């Protein structure tokens, strides 16, 4: 069995092994002026120069690209290390044959016992593969962003085009209703008006989501009590809930819940969330709106006993055109726009929206979160002692 080396001998052996055996890291020692005095590790493999060709040459002339030399980056790298003891850079370097490699690494300033600078150690690693991969991701990101902008433009155009035939259809239904008063005609007119209304809402949603995601919507923020806003939504949608046969209830706390909202935009959020709860809750089910406060946030939870959401779909539930299969079965005509509008409106308000569900047929919970209005004085956490 080989005798263990003394600590000092082992340390030197390990350092010598690193300098001569590493296949990934180029280790280059420089004097205080930036000239190569040692060419170790994988320096020859990575950069192509033998030690005899590299020693004595300035690191800028040896490794840096012409454009980086023109900008003074070879001197800047050493100056940063001189002042701050260490410099880290990712940049192109030149090999002996003129090809370029993407190098990640660092330069450390080395000082003697009196603190005087005696040189630098530059450590480099070839990460051209990582650079290529990153650039590929950036190109894919740019492509997706361009495709997304084209989609928004298409939605905006489609929304406009859908609105054009609605007025003639609405007028035709009105004329038909006036010319014929029999029951069959009335049913036909009701169907036409209902479908025109559905098309109008769809067109408005298409245009709205394109404006929101395109950043073309400004908010008119005003103080409001979230309790009153929630109660107003319940009042507006109560007839729809009765027709469906579901119980719709608002459970209000005693104290005010001050927020700053754009009333019209926030109404969109609640109409979407509560409207969906009514649509996807079977007759005999229940829906609750529960405003509350948590720390510096004001919350409104919309809970139902409806069809629930597949947990695998929850991460995508607010994406544009995303629809859970059970929801498609109930309403095949939906496009998955409403929840995307909700997310964008909440982000504009500086808030957020979250969805939770235990799974199919186990109901769902949507929580909108807004910052507490700091402009309204708050009651003390507890009464002062007498």
TrEMBL record:
According to the UniProt record, one GO cellular component term is: plasma membrane
What biological processes does GO assign it? regulation of DNA-templated transcription
Task: Quote the subcellular location field of this record.
Answer: Cell inner membrane
Disordered: annotated segments = 352-386
Q: Residues in domain PAC?
A: 87-139
Q: What is its EC number?
A: 2.7.13.3
Q: How does the entry describe its membrane topology?
A: Multi-pass membrane protein
Q: Where is the composition biased (Pro residues)?
A: 374-386
Q: Name one GO molecular function term.
A: phosphorelay sensor kinase activity
Is Kinase there in the keyword field? yes
Give the matching SMART domains. Answer: HATPase_c (SM00387), HisKA (SM00388), PAC (SM00086)
Record-given protein name: histidine kinase
Task: Give the organism, scientific name.
Answer: Ramlibacter pinisoli
């Amino acid at each position: 069995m080989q005798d263990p080396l003394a600590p000092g001998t082992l340390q030197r052996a390990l350092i010598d092994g690193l300098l001569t055996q590493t296949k990934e890291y180029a280790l280059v020692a420089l004097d205080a002026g930036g000239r190569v005095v040692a060419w170790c590790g994988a320096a020859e493999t990575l950069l192509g120069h033998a030690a005899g060709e590299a020693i004595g040459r300035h690191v800028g002339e040896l490794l840096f690209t012409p454009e980086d030399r023109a900008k003074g980056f070879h001197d800047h790298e050493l100056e940063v290390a001189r002042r701050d003891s260490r410099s880290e850079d990712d940049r192109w370097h030149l090999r002996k044959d003129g090809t370029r490699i993407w190098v990640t690494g660092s330069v450390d300033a080395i000082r003697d016992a009196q603190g005087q600078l005696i040189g630098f150690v530059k450590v480099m690693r070839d990460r051209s593969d990582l650079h290529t991969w990153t650039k590929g991701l950036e190109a894919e990101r740019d492509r997706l962003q361009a495709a997304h902008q084209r989609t928004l433009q298409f939605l905006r155009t489609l929304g406009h085009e859908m609105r054009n035939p609605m007025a003639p259809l609405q007028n035709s239904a009105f004329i038909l209703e006036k010319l014929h008063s029999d029951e069959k005609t009335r049913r036909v007119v009701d169907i036409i008006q209902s479908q025109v209304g559905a098309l109008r809402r769809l067109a408005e949603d298409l245009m709205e989501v394109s404006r929101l995601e395109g950043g073309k919507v400004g908010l008119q923020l005003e103080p409001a009590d979230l309790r009153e806003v929630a109660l107003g939504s319940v009042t507006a949608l109560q007839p729809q809930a009765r027709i469906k046969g579901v119980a719709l209830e608002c459970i209000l706390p005693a104290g005010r819940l001050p927020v700053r909202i754009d009333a019209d935009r926030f109404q969109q959020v609640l109409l979407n969330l509560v409207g969906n709860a009514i649509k996807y809750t079977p007759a005999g089910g229940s829906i609750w709106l529960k405003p509350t406060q948590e720390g510096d946030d004001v919350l409104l939870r919309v809970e139902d006993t409806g069809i629930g959401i597949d947990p695998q779909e929850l991460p995508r539930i607010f994406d544009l055109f995303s629809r859970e299969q059970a929801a498609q079965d109930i309403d095949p005509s939906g496009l998955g726009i409403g929840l995307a509008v909700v997310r964008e409106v909440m982000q504009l308000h500086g808030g957020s929206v979250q969805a939770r569900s235990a799974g199919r047929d186990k109901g769902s919970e949507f929580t909108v979160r807004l910052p507490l209005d700091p402009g309204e004085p708050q009651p003390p956490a507890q009464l002062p002692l007498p």
